Amino acid sequence: MEKALHSRDVLLGVCYYPEHWPETMWEDDFRRMKELGLEYVRMAEFGWALMEPEEGVFDFSLFDRAFALAHRHGLNIIIGTPTATPPAWLTHRYPETLNAQANGISYEHGSRRHYTYNSPKFRELSARIVQRMAEHFAEHPGIVGWQLDNEFNCEVFEFYSAADHTAFREWLKAKYGSLAALNEAWGTVFWSQTYTDWEQVHLTRNVPSDSPNPHLKLDEKRFFSDSVISYAQMQADIVRAAAPRHWVTTNGLFGHLDTHKLTNDMLDFISYDSYPMFGRMFPDGGENPLLDRRFSMSLSNVRSISPNFCIMEQQSGPGGWVNRIEQPSPKPGQLRLWTYQSIAHGADLVVYFRWRTATFGTEMYWHGLHNWDNRPNRRTREVERIAEELRRAGQAIAGSRYEAEVAILRDYDNEWDGEFDKWHGGYEWTSTLSWFKRLQRRHIPNDMLFVNEQTTLDQLNRYQTLIYPHPTIIREETAKLLEAYVQGGGTLIIGCRSGYKDETGRCRMTPMPGPLAPLCGVTVEDFTREEPDGSSPSFTLSSQAFDTFATFTSNGFAETLAVTSPDAIVLGRYDNSSYMFGEPALVENSSGEGRTIYFGGVFSDPLVDQLIDRLGITSPASDLLELPECIELTVRSHDKPIFEGQDSGLRIHFLLNYSGQSASIKVRCGATDLLTGKRYVKGAAELDPYAALALVFDE
Ligand code: GAL
To answer: What pLDDT, on a 0 to 100 scale, did the predictor assign at position 646?
Structure first.
């Protein structure tokens, strides 16, 4: 079954913490939520100490009263299991439930997410609170769904308690069967690391130079991910058995967690927490960073799990903890823009974080829709407007799917291996960002596609072009799948450092790019990292194939290529900036109906632009619209008519202006904005700063 949110309307909600406010305020809060146009409220995900004030003593009365009131006001309730915040009595009595750092120092009570998934005691106590909650709330008429825990692997995503070391051994026994197989996979003959007893095997500990065995590092992350998944499965099983009417989700995408597997194994759909101001705080580098627009990339990752999903936390004010994450206020219009950014990428339910800013605690500067003074303000007015627009447009948008003909491929093995391995890790981000950025700015919608053992040819064949920037670890089967995709007519683009590692992270003794070499029609003959001063060999493009005499940088890593296929042509050669002078840097090979482009470097914005031109990839809306770069285009469409009288499925063109300036566009055919009802006639139009439109073009 497809793991997607199935909604007939696009709806809004808000996170609410009744435990933070005098009970006398609740009724007024729920009433005003409804008045504002909100339909969902998420509660309880941090309430363990209230629900189980003493070990084995349960008291759901506060949430009973809050849920009853919310339900009376017609709100749908999303209930969170509270396991992200174990009570003080728990970790005090059972310190073995606490997570620890690699150096053995334990985390302590006082913040959140200080527990470890592998503590048997923590599992037992988690199972009990979830069981009690699920039984207690299963028949509640207001509850529609469950959020498991809160943001698995946020705050901390490495686990080194005693329980984790023990569980790791069991995990390895199941994976390798014998110590001999483990020693072989991890290459422990190197530096006499050979294990002769399972008790000698540990997760990373305090080792000299901070340089543990790299193959262990990779397995460690797979183990962390499996630990979350088995812990979440335990919760999901309990909730589903007790409350089969309710949907089950969890929120966020965090490190060392295969969220695709998590979702496929146990959830109805994934939810995401979108805080685009982080994109402004940590700009993505280069001259023209994407800033808050970079969250469109995160939303594309979310969409690769669930084509329609929920935003469980949508930023609704300035962000900040007392001592960190100081974020400015969203500008007027930006909340609306970010809400439609989520919707444009497939969200059909958007829940704001949070109703009102806390007056105490770590997050008393993480602003909600209301400030402490609880008065209506420009942010609440903006949400009121969005709710009104969605009343008009929501049903036409809900359930429609994001359209893309280009996908950027990713996988967890390379992401996790690349965190530790400096010889390929950073390139992934640089190249992915360049592709995403240039496709974004040229109005070419694109998907992220995560490759794993279950990936099928049908999934690849949905796209005309695939970019797999640096698949260092690649299975033979994946290489065969890519070959079938190209043979069938697809275009595949690959960058340097590809194909040379197997699944254990050991290097192959065949010419690079390993199993991808025949398909790409090249072998790597020589290579170098960038020089200590940051310079890399540069190259020029073939004047027969490109309309430029510019030089391009290999951008951090350079490989010289030997052409091995009679059908290959050299598209670029190194210039006299280095000893690689004259050698091929960029090669195109045709096989079957399709082609590959292999680049012996790390992609950069100018090179990506050239490749987009060479491949003739254009915006699907180029016949309908002329847009400046500051505007994002996404297309969501229905494959069938949704309203009576329609001949075909509706296609909705979302236009999002990330700029604080108004932007000029040209419309080539009459259209109506579903959100405002405004008509656009053929010709020029001016979009407001931070504008968001959902255009339907005249037939
Ligand atoms: C999220 C988290 C929320 C809140 C918010 C703002 O990551 O799920 O509980 O902490 O960030 O900091």
So the answer is: 78
112 is in an annotated binding site: yes
Ligand 1 neighbourhood includes 583 CB (under 6 angstroms) = no
Question: Tell me: the pLDDT tens digits for 265-280?
Answer: 999 999 999 999 999 8
Measured CA angle at 363 (ends 359, 368), to 5 deg: 70
Nearest-atom number in ligand 1 for the CA of 150 is 8
Closest residue by CA, ligand 1 atom 1: 273
Q: Which atom of ligand 1 is nearest to the CA of 251?
A: 8
What's the domain count of the chain? 2
Has 151 been annotated as catalytic?
yes
In a domain, 280, yes or no: no
Q: What is the Å distance from ligand 1's center to 278 Cα?
A: 12
Instruction: Give the residue from 565, 587, 615 where a domain finishes.
Output: 615
- Cα 374 to chain centroid, rounded: 33
| Interval between CA 313 and ligand 1 midpoint (Å) | 8
Q: What is the pLDDT of residues 434-457, one digit of tens each?
A: 999 999 999 999 999 999 999 999
In the predicted model, is pLDDT for residue 93 greater than 90? yes
Identify whether residues 417 and 563 lie together within a single domain.
Answer: yes
Q: In which band, very low, low, confident or very high, does the pLDDT at 430 lie, cut at 50, 70 and 90?
A: very high
User: Is any ligand 1 atom within 6 A of the Cβ of residue 366?
Assistant: yes
433 shares its domain with 578: yes
Contacts of 424 (CB under 8 A, 6+ apart): 414, 417, 418, 470, 472, 497
Residue of the nearest CA to atom 9 in ligand 1?
Answer: 150
Shared domain check, 632 and 573:
no
pLDDT value at position 642?
80
Query: Comparing C-alpha atoms, which of 84, 62, 85 is closest to residue 16?
Result: 62
Nearest atom within ligand 1 for CA of residue 45: 9
Q: How many angstroms does the Cα of residue 211 sit away from the middle of ligand 1?
A: 33
CATH code, 667: 2.60.40.1180
Whether 67 lines ligand 1, by a CB cut-off of 6 Å, is no
Report CA-CA distances (Å) from 205 to 131, 156, 198.
35, 16, 16
pLDDT band (50, 70, 90) for residue 523: very high
* 579 and 536 fall within a common domain: yes
Say how far apart CA 95 and CA 131 lie, in whole Å. Answer: 23
Do 452 and 534 lie in a common domain? yes
Average pLDDT of the residues in 559-563: 98
Cβ(587)–Cβ(561) under 8 Å? Answer: yes
In what side-by-side order are the strands of the sheet with 683-687? 625-626, 663-667, 683-687
Q: Which tokens go with 81?
A: 């299991």
- The domain of 684 spans 625-697
Euclidean distance between CA atoms 536 and 249, whole angstroms? 46
- Residue 280 labelled as part of a binding site: no
The CA distance from 60 to 118, in Å, is 27
Q: How far is the centre of ligand 1, averaged over its atoms, from the C-alpha of 337 (Å)? A: 20
The closest of 83, 411, 499, 447 to 221, measured between CA atoms, is: 411
Digit-coded pLDDT (tens) for 621-680:
999 999 999 999 999 999 988 877 777 889 999 999 999 999 999 999 999 999 999 999
Measured from the CB, is residue 149 less than 6 Å from ligand 1?
no
Q: Is 150 annotated as a binding residue?
A: yes
Rounded distance, CA 243 to CA 131, Å? 10
| Mean pLDDT in residue range 322-347 | 97
The whole-number pLDDT of residue 648 equals: 83
Out of 39, 45, 220, 313, the active site residue is 313
Distance 697 CA to ligand 1 centre (A): 39
**Ligand 1 pocket, residue 154 CB under 6 Å:** yes
**Ligand 1, atom 6: closest residue by C-alpha:** 366
User: Residue 453: how many CB atoms within 10 A of its CB?
Assistant: 8
Q: Are residues 534 and 653 in the same domain?
A: no
Q: How far is the CA of 274 from the centre of ligand 1 (A)?
A: 10
